[in-house]
Amino acid sequence: MEANESQRVVAFQLQFDKPTVSQTTIAEWNPEKDLLAMVTEDSKLLLHRFNWQRLWTTSPGKFITSICWRPDGKAIAVGLEDGTISLHDVENGKLLRSMKFHCVSVICLNWVEDRKKLMDGDRCNSTYEDRTARFFPPAPRVPQTRGLVQGDSSSFMDENDDSFRELFDSSHQQFDILCSGDKDGNIYFNIFGIFPIGKVNIHDIAFRSPLVENHASYQLMDASICKMALSSDICHIMVLCSGVLTEIGSEASDTSESHLQGFHSLVLDCSIFQERKNELHQVARQASNAEHLFEVIRKSIDVMSKQWSDAMHMYHEKFNTLSTLIVDHGLDSSPQEEFLSLLGGARTSPPVHQFLVTSLGEAGLKRVGKAVSGAGKELQKIVLDHLQPAAEMIAFRMGELRGLSKWRARYKGIGLEESLIDDATEKAGMLLVQIERFIRILSSVVQQFSNFFNWLLKCVKVLMSEPSDQLLPFSSELVIIFLKFLYDQDPIGTLLQDTKLLNIEVDSETMQRVAELAYFGGFLDSEYLKRTLATEFQQLESCLKKALEMTLATVSRRILCKDVLPLFPVSPTLVKPFPASVSYYQEAFNGTTCERLTDYTSFMVPDDFFPNMINCIGITRGLIHDLDYVKSGHNTLEVALLSIPDGYHCVDLSLYKEEQIVLLLNDVSMASEGSENACMMITQTADLTFVPISRSSVFLSWNLHKLQDFVTFLQLENEKVREISHSVVAPLAVSASRGVACVFAAKKRALVYILEEDEDEDEAY
């Protein structure tokens, strides 16, 4: 398949060359398995095995802008153009969770697991054990009921299985953070990929350089995020972005000396994630579990409302006929008055006789009774199997959070406000009271409907001169109560709606219970009698959201801009993206045996602004620690420039393991002759000339052009190179953990190469 190979060893064994249906725009290897996720130009997400067997395909219905794998490879995050982030199961592509943190396109995603394990229980700063499993069975599932359109208002998966629960429980064993950046400069940090714990906007972050004598502050304007990468110790995040770096409050704001329009590398200090890892993990675990239970309650209320509404619709549809018949017969009475007259033994009026015998009939009455009775049983089942267990577990978890909030020395620093958690805990208790109240009202209403229908069935039998000895007994007193309070009212439906006030009389027994609660130090809020079940649940959600927003705001304030490195100028009209990659490696520090995490950033330098540096790739390293040592006279920031041979153009690049760079180059010299060739190669950063960068006291300045005398010229004959008989396009998908790369040809082909073949395999593929 490769043409004109030399007699020397051919680098990178070609595993296969397969056609693709659509052009691929995004591709990323699973970190733990030989699986490749791809996004096509028509925004379909595909998952292939290493042998190119397709496992599944899914389409979110919106344009996919980014993807990334969970660190354990069991789920994949997908960013969409409308700001939505969805999580999918690796096994089958099912939607696990859909979240809307952003309002615009999610440009990049990065999911990192902390390399340091959570502290063991024998340490003084120990982790907090989640005791929920000791006292409760597994969390209830979201109810599934026929007649309800699944997923209408749910952000969770609609499958009635344990896929999400298993994945979520496994994520609790480690501490991982999903970072998402959008085109407006917002970055969100989500523990377990679902719980927001921090957010920043790169436009709002001011940076003061200690290198500048006047200690001026600088800020990014009109910035757009291109790439970002969280370090494995979750202390720093590198952000590559294009925008205007401006001196704040500069008198010469319109001059070139006060701003730089170009491509910049930002270092954000997010060490609070590492410093408060255990506390954040505990809060995230409790709150995210509560969020799942909230969805169970929300869906339970929706299902119950739908079920009961359908039954009431059938009931009113049948019994409204009686009102019409009364008007048609010229009577000035209500249906309740007619039924009371019939119950009192008076002669049956013509409209009631016609309604019971002709319009409703025995069969119609039984259908209505079955519908109401069935709905009542279904509601009771949902309450007992889903709603009540979920509310009880929420109350327990709120109590756990309340206990954590009282540990002010540890949790005050992450914004876990005791008073706000107390409010949410009280609301969780009130929700349980409302559920108990709902159960009592539901039982009473269903019983009274059943008694009313039993009486009507006896009346129908009598009117039709049929025997009625085998009918169920009824209570005349309950019939009267039904006609007075329930015939044309719906307390169950009202409780399931977001209604502020209820016109339901409160009996003395209920008032006595409220008094007992207050007497024993319980809830003093008697206004719950005027709130519905749905309203109570919404107030609980609102209280917990307010409490967690305090944590989000507190942690977000601790995420600061540590350093900014202007890389190269970029025209404001430039739309076409250029190759860039960010990674971290463990390296020895200052020639010692001590290792330190070092950042590497590689990028293609545009030819327009540095005429003496044409077709060059820049590599920076050591930016995250540079300002920590610059005052002591040490420079950790170094830059290398790699010149691509004439006739080749860099299509994409990727930092690889052991400080290697994989380059994908198109042969543009042959393009005019109609030939389409490319090559892929690996170069060692150790072979490059890294030059320390002395940070100028003039902060708003470019530094790359100072290195034009230190450019390393790439010699293809001295590198591991694989020629490709196709013109190639981005993306280049490289897996450091699996040692493979996938290259996409312009003519809709995918080529998979093994980057680390055995040394004794010296023959070409």
Give your account of this protein's structure.
With 765 residues, the chain is α+β, with helices and mostly antiparallel strands. Helix content is 32%, strand content 28%. It contains 13 helices and 31 strands. The strands form seven sheets. Strands 19, 20, 21, 22, 26 and 27 form a six-stranded mixed beta sheet that branches. Strands 14-15-16-17-18 form a five-stranded antiparallel beta sheet. Strands 1-31-30-29 form a four-stranded antiparallel beta sheet, with no helix packed on it. Strand 19 (580-588) and strand 20 form a beta hairpin. Helix 4 runs antiparallel to helix 6 (350-405), helix 5 runs antiparallel to helix 9 (476-485) and helix 8 (418-463) crosses helix 9 (476-485). It is elongated, with a radius of gyration of 34 Å. Mean pLDDT is 85; it is low at 1-8, 120-126, 147-161 and 758-765.
